[in-house]
Amino acid sequence: MAVDLKDVTDVATEPGTLPATMAAWVIRQDREGEPRDAFQIEEIEVPEPGALEVVVRVMAAGVNYNNVWAAMGKPVSVFRYHPEEDHHIGGSDASGIVWKTGPGVTKWQPGDEVIIHCNQASYEDPEVHGLDPLAAPSQKIWGYETSWGSFAQFTKVQAQQLIHKPKNLTWEEAASYALTYFTAYRMLMDRCNIQAGERVLIWGAAGGLGVFATQLCRLAGALSCGVVSSPEKGALLEQLGITGWIDRTGHAGMMRKGGESPDEEKERFKAMRGFGKAVRDVLGDDPNIVFEHVGQATFPTSVFVVKPFGKVVICAATTGYNLDFDVRYLWMRQKQIIGSHFANAWECTKANELIASGEIRPVLWRVMGFDGVAEAHQLMKENKHLGKIAILVGAPETGLGKTEEGPGAIYAEVGA
């Protein structure tokens, strides 16, 4: 059924009552492929909240690369994660208004303004009650490994996913940061227990993860060296409090491509040593922590440059997940490799307090209308975006939703 996009900002019911249907950008398995084709607007039944669930009216949504993968069906189809649903509504970042609560929900009421973190796990898993929800066998990322994400007028979430919306942010600003920022927070604050005076190397420091890692280092009193691809991105890092930065275009020879010949590996090792010297020139010593999410191309360098007993913390592998490195530099110098994946509700809540206080700020490139969801993901797939994209859903225009003074997002063209 055709959907009139002019009506997306209008809802016919008051908080507490759901309409029968909603507009949603939907992926179906038979059209997985290019995002521009995979995403299509459909009229979908609005889901009812179950026990300990909440339905939120989405005011704005954030775009992440995970739903480029969902659109393409790679590396695996998302329908493997939720076979009970014949459709996929993506989107793992959102700001919005609680519209209806399910049985057992007592903390949240219709009308509450919230953001949503994307970690889900079953309340019945024992890991949720004492270890960490990220360890639960039921753990999934909402809007990627589940359906009912944020690219729709309404979304269904677990009540524990809700966090109070910072009053100093607009709807689009509040929708832009949770997935990347909360990931960076767990990596540095929890998994690495970052301390004042430590030295941190940040790959892709002007990207979606790196801009928050840079700010967290400043806040923790740690020295930071950011790796970027242009002086313009270095200037943004200076605005965020970086100690110093390196333009990686001058060190391209250190990048691991895989399958290097012995002579090529010898040259790569020489370039890697030169990069390590550049890092020391910025930080005054080798880093205690390397903030990794690039993977194959950079991981050998990360293990090499981190100081003895130092930590390489990794949450992604954007250049490839088959890592090939000289393990002697790991065991003989007693370094640590630490895996990290998103964050739990407590970490998300504590991290969000720093946004509400203005000590950490989102970095946003572009805001698009609800009609731009497929285009936004196509831009990401083709690497034509220049930073974080937010999508207006229930909000009719930018600049709405801010109810208190305070620093909002930084608007900038950013990338690795």
Account of the 3D structure:
The chain has 416 residues and is an alpha/beta fold. It has helices spanning 35-38, 66-72, 171-174, 178-191, 210-220, 231-240, 262-283, 299-305, 328-331, 345-356, 373-381, and strands spanning 21-26, 40-45, 53-62, 93-101, 113-116, 119-120, 140-141, 154-158, 162-164, 199-202, 223-228, 244-247, 289-292, 311-314, 336-339, 363-364, 366-368, 389-392, 410-411. The protein folds into two domains: 5-177 and 362-411, Medium-chain alcohol dehydrogenases, catalytic domain (Quinone Oxidoreductase, Chain A, domain 1, Alpha-Beta Complex); 182-339, NAD(P)-binding Rossmann-like Domain (Rossmann fold, 3-Layer(aba) Sandwich). Helix 4 (178-191) packs across helix 5 and helix 4 packs across helix 10 (345-356). It is globular and about 65 Å long. The chain starts with 20 loop residues before the first strand and ends in a 5-residue tail after the last strand.
